[in-house]
Amino acid sequence: MTAVRASLLLPILVAVTAVGPMAMHIILPSMPGLQRVFDTDYGTVQLALTVYLFGVAVSQLVYGPVSDRFGRRTPLLLGLGLFVLGSVMCMLAQSIEWFIGGRIVQALGGSAGIVLTRAIVRDLYERDRAASMIAYVTMAMVIAPMMAPTIGGYLDDSYNWRATFIFVAAAGALALLFATAKLPETHVAERMPVSLTGLFAGFGALLTIRRYYGYSLQVTFATSAFFAFLAGAPYVTVEVLGLSATQFGLYFIAISIMFMIGNFATARVSARLGVDTMLSVGAVLTMSGAIGLLVVSLTGNVTTVTLFGFMGLIAMGNGLTLPNGIAGAVSVSPRLVGAASGLTGFMQMTVSAVISYIVGKIVVDDPNLLGIAIFLCMTLAVAAHILINLILARREEPTPQSS
């Protein structure tokens, strides 16, 4: 398939990728209120975010290798259908247990767009160009999660939390409709006997490649820093700093804009400068923001400006880190693009789920721990890049081929 043909797919790729992150973000302003609706504690409500991350993590282990064996289109359409079903379950929930169950189903479906879009882009482009295209997809689709907390806050304040899931279910149904009508197959796999061992053998092969660890770990810990923020920021801003759900959504727009700026920079220059250089620049920006958050947390000066300001700097750095790190990870082996995308996504979401759960618990006792947790995550991300990508992998392995 030509690059021109692939460029026509961009709106579809954006739509199918966006529904999962949108559903993840849209309930953030409602989380403090759901505590009262379901007569439970904040930590239990926060499980609605944590189980979503775990669901996305585990299902990516399946979507990746299955798409390598059977193609990208069919698993993607099935995932979108599952997403719509989970959204309806959440909308009809009468208990926190039913609500969390719906979030699990929603996550199992929503992850299809996340992992398979990366694989589709890599089917069509070489490594450094793939980083640019992933950035375009991420930059464009971030509009949905950027607006999601604002939309969710408005729907919650004006109607109720169930209106939020009516909106999400409708968005998922539209994405499914357009993907069914317009999305072609981009990967024709070899006809091979089907076995569970064969489907997942690629994971073992990936784990023998040192450079894969460097890319995937940097992406994983950079992502976990962001989800630490998602887990703790609603409580800090609404319950500690006194903002409304709508105000939180509006401030969150600034974070998303900074992330889009980083993605735009990646889209414009990554093919020229290369993946590793862009990752180094992203590391500098993210650590600058993380150090700032650490300082204000240790000195007890967390305010709306310091919290969202330093997190905005981290978000801009992540706009450089995530598309380039993902492109690097899915390029270490041309035969294992889907498996690499799935395993990287699994690592991202699993670690993020654990971190978000921990932060959701500890931030209630000490809001300043949010900034410390984010700093620790970013330190691990930068350490992975320096120790593996810049030192160990360059000494012992050749640079991955772009093609």
Which word captures the global form? globular
Largest sheet: none
Please provide the ordered H/E string of secondary-structure elements: HHHHHHHHHHHHHHHH
**Share of β-strand residues:** under 5%
Number of helices: 16
Characterize this entry briefly.
This protein is mostly helical.
Topology:
Elements: H1 3-7, H2 10-26, H3 31-37, H4 42-70, H5 73-91, H6 96-124, H7 127-141, H8 143-158, H9 161-182, H10 196-206, H11 210-240, H12 245-273, H13 275-298, H14 304-329, H15 337-362, H16 369-396
Description:
This protein is mostly helical and 403 residues long. Residues 398-403 have low confidence and may be disordered. Helix 4 (42-70) runs parallel beside helix 6, helix 7 packs antiparallel against helix 12 and helix 11 runs parallel beside helix 15 (337-362). The two termini are 15 Å apart. It has a single domain (3-183, 199-396), classed as MFS general substrate transporter like domains (Growth Hormone, Chain: A, Up-down Bundle), CATH 1.20.1250.20. It is globular, with a radius of gyration of 20 Å. It has helices at residues 3-7, 10-26, 31-37, 42-70, 73-91, 96-124, 127-141, 143-158, 161-182, 196-206, 210-240, 245-273, 275-298, 304-329, 337-362, 369-396.
